[in-house]
């Protein structure tokens, strides 16, 4: 194992140690539960309110735990780095979020998450808790549109949580929360570009390689292969390259109003994210697509990977109202 310049104690306890830090720094947002890999918003459960649960592997901070907060996610199941939480963690998150009105589990399309959530839903039903799910599949690079069910869930999940959390806070019932969260992710498309790899501390070496001067278009959050590897492009061309597969699906026609979320992958300077966003904004203006709200920053990362993801969600009146609702979490604050 190569020597790593990291701020850690034990490479095998990175997740546990990080959870301690999050809880210590933000007691207003995080409360522990009986499960060491489940955190909840302190005032949850709220009787009569639909609970919102998500979960996923660590290493993507502020996703997933960073979206626990007021008017967003109520409880989160936390996995090992780049690994699904256990079925037991998902189940305990569902129990923590249940206020008697049912639980909406909103998560990404990965094999481990699918298996463990399904097991947890069955066990929750046996415990008298109704849980319904929405599976995010917004990554256009991971499968063609006619195989959309195979697509991965990536940073578009954040917009799904934003909409679902706002709907639950507004008093939607469980079916209503599920319907609008499904609409949010159906109206969302995402793609990423990677410029460098990353290192899981307990592994000690890069889990894939991108040569200097190259970029991988469509790379997944765990280094899953993208569409192709091409020479590094200036921000202007990179924006064009990433928008082309999103726009060609025809969802974002001229006159559309959209939310745009640009996220760094962990090592990209914020200044460069804004350079990139300016090019995205310019192209969308040229095509007559109106940006109603934009988010630029580190919203869904992959340890210290260099790169950027682009997510767009088409709005209607209902989605616009829910996106604009106030929220207070570590990863997103507005209103």
Automatic annotation (TrEMBL):
Enzyme class, UniProt record, top EC level: transferase
Q: Which UniProt keywords apply?
A: Kinase, Transferase
Return the InterPro entries for the record.
DhaK_dom, Dihydroxyacetone_Kinase
Keyword Transferase annotated: yes
Alphabetized Pfam families for the sequence: Dak1
Q: What is this protein called?
A: Dihydroxyacetone kinase subunit DhaK
**Top-level taxon in the UniProt lineage:** Bacteria
Protein source organism: Commensalibacter nepenthis
What one GO molecular function would you report for this record?
A: phosphoenolpyruvate-glycerone phosphotransferase activity
Annotated SUPFAM superfamilies: DAK1/DegV-like
Keyword Cytoplasm annotated: no
PROSITE patterns tied to this protein:
DHAK (PS51481)
């Amino acid at each position: 194992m190569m020597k790593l310049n990291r701020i850690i104690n034990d490479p095998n306890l990175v997740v546990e140690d990080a959870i301690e830090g999050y809880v210590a720094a933000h007691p207003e947002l995080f409360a522990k539960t009986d499960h060491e890999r489940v955190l909840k918003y302190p005032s949850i459960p709220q009787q009569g309110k639909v609970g919102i649960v998500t979960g996923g592997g660590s290493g993507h901070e502020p996703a997933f735990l960073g979206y626990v907060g007021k008017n967003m996610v109520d409880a989160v199941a936390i996995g090992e780095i780049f690994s699904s939480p256990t079925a037991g963690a998902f189940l305990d998150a569902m129990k923590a979020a249940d206020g008697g009105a049912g639980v909406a589990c909103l998560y990404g399309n990965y094999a481990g998450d699918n298996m463990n959530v399904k097991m947890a839903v069955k066990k929750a039903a046996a415990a008298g808790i109704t849980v319904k799910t929405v599976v995010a599949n917004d990554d256009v690079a991971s499968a063609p549109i006619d195989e959309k069910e195979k697509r991965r869930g990536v940073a578009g999940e954040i917009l799904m949580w934003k909409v679902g959390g706002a709907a639950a806070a507004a008093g939607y019932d469980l079916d209503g929360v599920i319907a609008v969260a499904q609409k949010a992710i159906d109206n969302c498309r995402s793609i990423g570009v990677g410029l460098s790899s990353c290192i899981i501390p307990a592994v000690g070496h890069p889990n894939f390689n991108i040569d200097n001067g190259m970029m991988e278009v469509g790379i997944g959050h765990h280094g899953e292969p993208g569409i192709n590897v091409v020479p590094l492009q200036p921000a202007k061309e990179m924006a064009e390259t990433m928008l082309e597969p999103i726009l060609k699906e025809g969802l974002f026609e001229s006159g559309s109003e959209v939310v745009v979320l640009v996220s760094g992958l962990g090592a990209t300077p914020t200044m460069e994210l804004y350079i990139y966003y300016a090019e995205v904004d310019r192209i969308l203006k040229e095509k007559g697509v109106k940006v109603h709200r934009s988010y630029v920053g580190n919203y869904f990362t992959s340890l210290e990977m260099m790169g950027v993801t682009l997510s767009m969600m088409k709005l209607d009146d209902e989605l616009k109202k829910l996106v604009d609702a106030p929220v207070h979490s570590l990863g997103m604050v507005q209103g």
